[in-house]
Write a structure and sequence with these properties.
Blueprint (H helix, E strand, L loop, with lengths): L8 E2 L7 H10 L4 E3 L9 H11 L3 E4 L6 H14 L3 E4 L6 H14 L21 E4 L2 E4 L2
Parallel strand pairs: 1-2, 2-3, 3-4
Antiparallel strand pairs: 5-6
Length: 141
């Protein structure tokens, strides 16, 4: 896949297999981004241990699944300490949740593309102040 210049592979091994994932992250020419692996890990020291053992190239944060904004802040802090890249995605939130995550994401000033835009999946949803134009998400005034 490295010949195809793929940015990264998302969670290629089932969550919970830290040693196998660590080996893969150490050997792969295509960067690996963890996401499911982060879900359910709440303890700060456990988060730190996971990143130290696996040492992924990236982590993908879904705030509603990794402890909210405070949990995401911990993951970001630990990732940045270890030079691990990160980005934020939404996880099937309504427009209200997507709006909150988009505003939170903006405050982080991460220049990488983020994965926000799931609010339009719902038929029964709240009106949104967000406007998706191409690949960019804007806040309507």
């Amino acid at each position: 896949m490295a010949d195809l210049h793929i940015h990264s592979i998302e969670q290629p091994i089932k969550a919970g297999n830290w040693n196998d994932m660590a080996e893969l992250c150490a050997e792969t020419p295509t960067p690996i981004a963890l996401d499911e692996e982060l879900i359910g890990i709440i303890d700060f020291q456990e988060k730190k241990k996971l990143l130290e053992i696996i040492n992924p190239q990236y982590i993908i944060l879904k705030p509603s699944l990794v402890g909210g904004f405070a949990g995401s802040d911990e993951w970001i802090s630990l990732a940045e300490e270890q030079n691990i890249g990160w980005w934020i995605t939404s996880a099937l939130e309504s427009n209200i949740g997507l709006n909150a995550i988009a505003q939170y994401t903006f405050t982080k000033r991460n220049p990488m593309p983020q994965g926000l835009g799931t609010g339009s999946l719902f038929v029964n949803n709240f009106e949104s102040n967000l406007d998706l134009k191409g690949e960019l998400l804007y806040f309507k005034k």
